[in-house]
Each structure stands twice: as C-alpha cells, then as structure tokens.
Specification:
280 residues; 5-stranded antiparallel β-sheet; 4-stranded antiparallel β-sheet; 10 helices; 9 strands; 16% strand
Length: 280
C-alpha cells in the first residue's frame, strides 16, 4: 500500500523548496509588519505627547527608540526632517521648563487644585500631608513618585504629567467608599487565621506586616497603601470592636517593619496588632 501511494522524490523536493521559500517570505513580511506596527505606535505616542506639551516624554521616546527612529530617518527624507525638528523643539522646551520648574510647577498645581505641602523645597515636594513624596532628578529629567508604602512610579518629569500621576494615585487610594464593618471583619479573620496557623494564644500581638503579607497572597489586587489608609480610617471612624474584641495597635521603632498611618491617627509607626477581649 505504501508503494502504491508514494510520490516521486522530485515532487517532494519541489514542495520542500517552495515551502522553505514561502516560510522565509512569511517571516520577512511578519518582521516588516511588526516594525511598521512599532513605528506607528511611536508616531502615535509622539503625537499624544506633542498635544499634551510633554517635551521630556518626547525625548524619552527618542532615547528608547533610537535604532528604530534612525532607520526611519535613513529611509524617508520627510520623516527625517520631521523627527529632527521634533527632537530639537523638545530639547529647547525641556530646557525652558527645567530652568523655571519651581515657578511653573507651583502655578500648575494651583490651577489643578493640588496643594503642595508648605515645607516642600525644590527638587523635593510632598502632597496631602506628606503622604505623597515627589523628587525631581534634574540631570536625568525624571520624576520619582512615592508614598508612605514605597515607590509608585518613575517617569519623565513633565509638569502636567506629574500632576496627572499624583491625581491618579490620589483617586486610586482615597476616592473609594470605606466600609468599616467589612474592613474590621477582614482584619479579625486574618488575625485569627495567623494565630491558628502559628499556634498562638488568643490576644497575642502579631506583626502588622504578617497581616499584609497574608492578604497579599489571598486577596487579588491587594495594595498595602490602600490597606494603610483603610486602617487609618478604621481608627478614626470605627468601628473598633468585633465579636466582643477590640482592635489594639502597638507602635514600633522599626520603620521598615512598621506602617505609618495617615491623617490624625498617624502619630508613629504601627508595628503590631492584636484583638483584646472586651471586659464589661
């Protein structure tokens, strides 16, 4: 049966040749399509940043996409001129921004309703009672944004981009409904689970970071800065009792293991948590 159904070797060789040729061509076309898609994305980003007036973001693209842009310039005279013009303008405008940054930044913050904490001094700023900290690296043109719980983002230090990022982070953390009963129930559940797993007695103080680590493993999208703000709200707004037990937080001098609460309750680093039985 095999002999009856077999094909001549030359046919097989021809098919193999054509397959190899078409596969190579397909790879070449895919590479060209990928490069064209990437170039289109770069042009789209440049257009967006031009409309927003973000020269440092434009320069950042030129740095990151230098090989691609050099190839585009070499292949198209019109694009070459446009790219060179964009880059020169971005450099000029970024230098103007750098020289007058404190003045421009303060005016932009006032216009956006973003209050700079009074102790701020360029290149370090803070917002919302020190919860957000911003540092400008003038040499690299980069903004470093962090909060009580660590680094948030590093990005080109265009003024309106900084304001957008701070406002975005503020909304993410603070513009949320707070349900105290649900939060203390979650805390109490995690606390008791840790006592059970580690065979600890009721009322034992455990590190607050044990709670956050457990939530980080078990709760999708968990963020410690949101937890910190909700814990601060719980202490300020309540309730502070559940199932006959009251939450009790103890301070620590270890700033790495502790959490600095936000607002009126933020009077030191909280290191440990317990739920003590309420006695009548």
């Amino acid at each position: 049966m095999t002999e009856i159904c077999s094909f001549p070797n030359d046919i097989s060789d021809n098919i193999k040749y054509f397959y190899s040729k078409k596969a190579t061509r397909a790879e070449e076309l895919k590479a060209l399509a990928d490069e064209a898609e990437r170039a289109a994305k770069v042009w789209g980003e440049l257009l967006s940043f031009i409309k927003k007036g973000w020269p440092l973001h434009i320069i950042d693209i030129f740095d990151k996409e230098a090989p691609l842009l050099k190839k585009v310039q070499a292949e198209n005279h019109l694009e070459d001129e446009t790219i060179a013009e964009i880059y020169q303008l971005a450099k000029e405008k970024s230098e103007i921004q750098r020289k007058r940054f404190p003045t421009y930044f303060e005016k932009a913050c006032n216009k956006a309703g973003l209050i700079i904490d009074s102790e701020s001094r360029h290149p370090k700023y803070s917002f919302h009672s020190y919860f957000f900290q911003l540092e400008i690296d003038e040499r690299k043109g980069i903004a470093h944004l962090r909060n009580y719980e660590g680094r948030l983002s590093d990005f080109p230090a265009d003024i309106s981009a900084i304001i957008e990022e701070i406002q975005h982070e503020y909304r993410r953390i603070f513009d949320r409904p707070f349900e105290g009963k649900k939060f203390i129930k979650k805390l109490y559940k995690q606390y008791n689970a840790i006592l059970k797993n580690e065979k600890l007695d009721e009322g034992t103080s455990i590190p607050i970071r044990h709670i956050t680590r457990r939530l980080g493993k078990n709760e999708k999208g968990f963020r410690t800065d949101i937890f910190l703000v909700d814990l601060s709200r719980l202490l300020e707004q309540g309730p502070q009792e559940i199932d006959g037990h009251a939450i009790d937080l103890q301070q620590t001098k270890d700033t790495n293991q502790g959490m600095l609460l936000y607002g009126p309750v933020g009077r030191g680093y909280i290191g440990f948590i317990t739920f003590r039985k309420v006695t009548s």
